[in-house]
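ok trying again, last paste got cut off:
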Amino acid sequence: MVKRVVITGLGIISPVGKSPEEFFCNLMAGNSGIKRLQADFVEQLSIRIAAQIDFNPAAYFSKIQLTGIDRFSQFALVAAAQAVQDAQLELSAAEQLRAGVYMGSCLGGASALEEGYVQILQRETPRVKPFSVLLTMNNAAASHLSLKYQLQGPNVTYATACASSAIAIGEAYRQIKHGYAEVMLAGGAEAMLTLGALKAWEALRTLAQEDPLDAAASCKPFAKNRSGLVLGEGAAVLVLEDAERALARGAKIYAELAGYDCSSDASHITKPDAAGQARTMLKALYDAKLQPADIHYINAHGTATLAGDIEETRAIKQVFGAHVPPVSSSKSMHGHLMGATGAVEFMAAVLALQHNAIPPTINLHEPDPECDLDYVPNLGRTAVSLEAVMSNSFAFGGSNAVLIAKRFG
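nice, full thing came through this time. structure:
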């Protein structure tokens, strides 16, 4: 028997908010989390902007705990604690056997990894921390969540570039839908604002140039004068639950996770492909048993790269034809969180559905003629009627993931 899957808890720590409420309020207000990077290595960078979180780990963890938890895992634990509390989730010993955690991350413990290389390459007596392996492994965040909440079901980490956490959520949805689990924590975490990672992205020449008038306005999705993406950090975790279980315990239900698909372009490792993206959107709609006209808002991948924004626009047109709903890119405010970005943006779409409000694409003052959809420029919209929303995640490597949420009833 196919199960219905609902979202009963949300948690986030992001450049524009450290709770779901603060996050969505800042999105609607058009408040950017992009700024000059605060780091001791910033003078070694050509591009010195990022969507960085003002985060004091000592407020959440003891000194002993911090010896074994990298920054990205810290983010994941903070976001998950919010989500679990929000869902008022309590699991019996038997229920813990059918509860799991799926997370996405591109670089895992990037901070600890880079620190280790510094110790090896720049010190006369090379020596790394005893817990370096445990700090840096990609599945560390998911493992910490499993340990903290005694989740003994499936525990999987996805590393599929910027589709990682969208795929983690989608595959967790399938676990519940097909009866393998009853509850899943799903999302993503990333903390790659390190010298090595930033230099690598500089070399790829896809990072946005700093806006000469306002660093916060540097990310300009779908604008004619866009120049690239801005890297960010953070985590978002959702509680997914079998709808029958959620109803039986009287849980608050944000939305039903109704549709998901992932697929590969199989065409180029960096160049996006509208045909592959359109195929993924159509298959997610089929999974949700919805028509294009049923979708009332799309949270776009919208990275602000020259090719990416055009290809996504073309893909949306192929799928929606004359029924294209409002589309916006929240990356214009929180930046590109890589392995966590799909979860952050899906959460933005779910909150849009809950509040009947659409966050804007800020910094869109000069439209690109090839990007000619309704991107909700600069000002959010309230008092709109939303019944179903879509979130797109299209990654390097050609990995595409699309999630659809709708009102539960």
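cool. DSSP finds 14 helices and twelve strands in the chain. The domain at 5-248 is CATH 3.40.47.10 (Peroxisomal Thiolase; Chain A, domain 1).
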